[in-house]
Amino acid sequence: MSQRPTEKVAFSLRNPAVRAWLYQIFAVLLLVACLGYLLHNTITNLTTRGITSGFDFLSRGAGFGIVQHLISFQEGDSYARVFVIGLLNTLLVSALCIVFASILGFIVGLGRLSDNWLIRKLCTCYIETFRNIPPLLQIFFWYFAVLRNMPGPKQSLSLFDTVFASNRGLYLPSPELAQGSIAGLLALLLAIVGIVMLKRYNRFHQIHTGKYWRVWPWYIVMLLVLPGLAHLLFGPALHWDIPALHGFNFRGGMVLIPELGALTLALSVYTSTFIAEVIRSGIQSVSHGQHEAARSLGLPNTVTLRQVILPQAMRVIIPPLTSQYLNIVKNSSLAAAIGYPDMVSLFAGTVLNQTGQAIETIAITMSVYLIISLLISFLMNIYNRRIALVER
């Protein structure tokens, strides 16, 4: 049989492959031209205004105070230290909101599936109310309508004369290291190691014998007895600095400013509504046959939920839950609206206005948010792979 001659692809605009390559080349050249124009325009404007680009401004003194800082700060410290303080404040409010929103969302999500009509309707009203109010308005509500209307320091609300709440903030006892701190830390680590070993042995025993021991009382005993012995033998590991009223305000201890409280409350309540729906949908995705099988074995509802339903629901819950955690970090930038000294308010706000280094400050802020989001996604993906069900 004679072979069919090989057809050559003609370089013609009628050829779809040629047109596709030309379109791609044109798109790349257009993108490069746009970026070049923006870069040239930026350099020209900076030169005209006498603004030098670069990151040398980070070493200059800030010259302003910060109401909340987790590390020491003076007005003469550098802008680089201002950036670190803003980053720590952002991480603080993000971590608090993630914890509180997760706990509240889990409780409300389970309440949506409750057999009790009143609990189910209350949880539904909670979700539909706070989910449909913009988070910025909720921040304003908690800050201006609630926290700022609390009594002053002299009429502050007190709990055991150690915790005080006023319109200046929440004052708490501050822990400080004492002479037995090293021994107390070692005792606590030893208790944690003992708990982990006991938990693994209990699981090994359950696999081989089918019997499960109730060991949580031993957890409490180890957490109390070992640090207690260290306290008796080597002295207290911590002593507490109790806040006290002096003049028109409190001194000593540590304070959670109203801006932090309003931001934490608003973002926790707002995000918990979405997390509750994620929890509800994840649990409902598990086949009802799993509930019936656990019930036929005589398992209590709490054990069924913890050992049967949730492990299967987590593979559905984790991906959307990751998105909600990312939203918390990004929504924390709304702190600038009430003056909370987060990274956006300090670095992309005050520092930008003082130095005029708009490109550098905005680029650093955007890069940090990107890194934080990617790190959260990375850690959640690792956890998701660990709990994923391996199908045969």
Describe this structure in words.
This protein has 392 residues and is of the alpha+beta class. The protein has a domain at 79-149 and 258-387: MetI-like (MetI-like fold, Orthogonal Bundle). Helices cover 64% and strands 7% of the residues. The protein is built from 11 helices and 8 strands. It has helices spanning 16-49, 79-111, 117-130, 135-146, 181-209, 216-234, 258-284, 288-296, 301-331, 343-355, 358-387; strands spanning 157-159, 163-166, 169-172, 174-177, 238-241, 244-246, 249-251, 254-256. A 4-stranded antiparallel β-sheet has the order 1-2-3-8. Strands 4-5 form a two-stranded antiparallel ribbon. A two-stranded antiparallel sheet has the order 6-7. The longest helix has 34 residues, at 16-49. The radius of gyration is 29 Å and the shape is globular. The mean pLDDT is 85. The chain crosses the membrane at residues 21-39, 82-108, 177-198, 218-240, 260-279, 334-352, 358-383. InterPro entries: AA_ABC_transptr_permease_3TM (IPR010065), ArtM/GltK/GlnP/TcyL/YhdX-like (IPR043429), MetI-like (IPR000515), MetI-like_sf (IPR035906). It is found in: Cell inner membrane; Cell membrane.
